[in-house]
Amino acid sequence: MVIxxxxxxxxxxxxxxxxxxxxxxxxxxxxxxxxxxAIGLRAMVVSDGPAGVRGxxxxxxxxxxxxxxxxxxxxxxxxxxxxxxAATLGAEARSKGVDIxxxxxxxxxxxxxxxxxxxxxxxxxxxxxxxxxxxxxxxHQAGVAAAVKGKKGSIGYVELLxxxxxxxxxxxxxxxxADGDYPEPTVESVTKAAEAKLKDIPDDLRFSLVNxxxxxxxxxxxxxxxxxxxxxxxxxxxxxxxxxxxxxxTHEGQDSCAEKHYARLPKGLVERVEKKLDMIKxx
Length: 283
What we know:
mainly alpha; 3 domains; three-stranded parallel β-sheet; two-stranded antiparallel ribbon; globular
């Protein structure tokens, strides 16, 4: 028997099995870490993001404050103001049961063309450092931890299109799927992931493709999707244009996917999209 004392973190870690140590590096779900009751460690809740606290759900009935994006915060050149704002974020995180906010992002914004450049504080390293420190202090002031993102040597993710366009100039790792394979990230492997998870895709068609089950060889284990949120009731002329466009995008438009490095929708998913399009009515 190992006697654990308060503050004996190294002793607690040494008492864990290898499986439990690995479990600490994984998630119980998308937003919670695995608890280890044997050493008194509960699950911790994480959440996006740098401009508002989403929480663990995507539900319009559980809104988040929409605060100025980090690029705007950097433009203030005011660490004290940023610290106060981050304390507000921290208070909102606490109200949603969030322990760790997945922010701030400290990447240098080298080009305005980056789709997520707004999550950074700017293009000057000295400014980014001062604003990021103030941001973290504000979260700590509210009793919330910060997950600083973009540090040297950290693992990140990019869009498939970006990875393919820069193949040979950037390094990326292969990820093991449920079959024990390490498939290349390609448009085909993403479509296979969608085929494997088809029965698990919810009715509202908002989903991420994580850990597709065994049996579909070459399915990429981590894929995302883009969806459109549409009003069911539309002005008559707008409803027809919208339905015509979305029908084209999910049918004839699929023929253009390969050249643009987008994954095709599997047939079973297209059929479900058609039913959703039928719900759009013109008034």
